[in-house]
Specification:
Blueprint: E1 3-8, H1 16-35, E2 39-44, H2 46-49, H3 56-73, E3 81-84, H4 90-99, H5 104-108, H6 111-117, H7 126-140, E4 146-149, H8 154-170, E5 180-183, H9 217-225, H10 245-258, H11 262-269, H12 274-299, H13 303-332
Parallel strand pairs: 1-2, 2-3, 4-5
Helix pairs in contact: 3-12, 4-7, 4-13, 7-8, 9-12, 10-11, 10-12
The structure holds tryptophanyl-5'AMP (TYM).
Tryptophanyl-5'AMP binds next to β1, α1, α7 and β4.
Length: about 325
Amino acid sequence: AKRVVSGIKPTGNLHLGNYLGAVKQWTAMQDRVQAEGGETMYFIADLHGLTEWIAPADLRQQTIEMTATLVAAGIDPDRSILFNQARVPAHSELSWLLNNVARVGWLNRMTQFKDKAGKNREGASVGLYDYPVLMAADVLLYNTTHVPVGEDQKQHLELARDIATKFNTDYATTLFTLPEPLISAAAPRIMSLRDASAKMSKSNPSEQSVVKLVDSDEVIADKFRKAKTDPDLLPATIEELADRPEARNLLTIFAALADRTPADVLGDYAGKGFGAFKPDLADLAVAKLGPIRNEMVRLLDDRSAIDAILNKGAEKARDLAAPVLRGAQEAMGLVL
Ligand code: TYM
C-alpha cells in the first residue's frame, strides 16, 4: 500500500506557491490514496523552522496558523495523520543516526543551503546546513513510498534516497524504503508575481510578489491586477510563451487554480490582452482562496481544538515511527 508523507515549514504563511505546488496535491492524494487502502501523513516542520532565527512566540503562533490553514484547505485530521514534527522525537533521533551516514560532500551540493546561506556561510546555523538530513529522517521513519512536493525539494529527496541506500548497504539491511518524489505536474514551481526568475516565497522582499492565503479578497485581487506582464496579446499555443516567463507563470496559476490544462485556458484567451486575463484570474483566485482563508479564521477561534488535532496526530505518528527507529538502532548496534 502507498504511504504518502510530506511536510511544510510553519514559518511564513501558506502562499500560492506552496498551496498549488504541494498542499493542493496533498488533499487530492488524501482521497485517492486512501481509496486504495494507503495512508497519508502531513506534518508541520517546526524543527526545520528553527534553522533560521524565529522568536518562540512567533513559531508557536505560526504552527497553530499553519495547522488551521491545512485543515481549512482540506486536510482532514480524521483521515490523514496531521501532526507537528517536534511532538514526535523519533524525527530528531533518527536524524542524528543518519548524520553519520550522510557525507559532507553530499550536503555541500545542496543548492537550497547555498541560496539561503548566501555569502554568510560561516554565520549560517549548523541546522540550516544539516536541514536535508532531518528531512531524510522525516520520510524514512515511515516507510514512505511517495512524497508530494514542489520542484525545489527534489534535490533533498534524492539525498534522502542516497542516505537510505547507503544505510541499507553499510548495515546490510532492507530497513529503509526508497521514497519517490511526486512533483506536482500542474504547479511544479510557481514564480514571484514581480519577477518570474524567482520562485514565489515568503522570503521574497516584495509583498506584492507573494499571494498569501491570509490576504483579504481585495489584496489578492490587487496583487493579480498589478502582477508584472508584458504588453503582447496571449498567443494560441503554449510554445509561444517560452520567452515570456511572467505570462507563462500567470497562465500556470490560472490553470492550476481552475483544475484545467494551460492549453485549455489559453483557448479562451488567445488574441486577448492581459487587461482581459488578469481580472478573470483575480476573480478566480478570490473564489478559490477566499473560502480557505475564511475557514482558517474560523478555526483559529478555538486554539485548543487545533492543539488537540496535533496531539492526536502525533500520537499515531509516534506509534508508526517507533519500530523503524528501533530497527535503525538495532542495525547500528545501539540496542544491547
Ligand atoms: P516549504 O515549507 O518551503 O514548502 C512546502 C511545500 O511547498 C512547495 N513549494 C512550492 N511549490 C511550487 N512553487 C513554489 N513557489 C513553492 N514554494 C514552496 C515545496 O516544494 C514544498 O513541497 N523542506 C520542506 C519541508 C519539509 C519536507 C519534509 C517536505 C520538511 N521535511 C519531508 C517533504 C518531506 C520545505 O521547506 O518546504
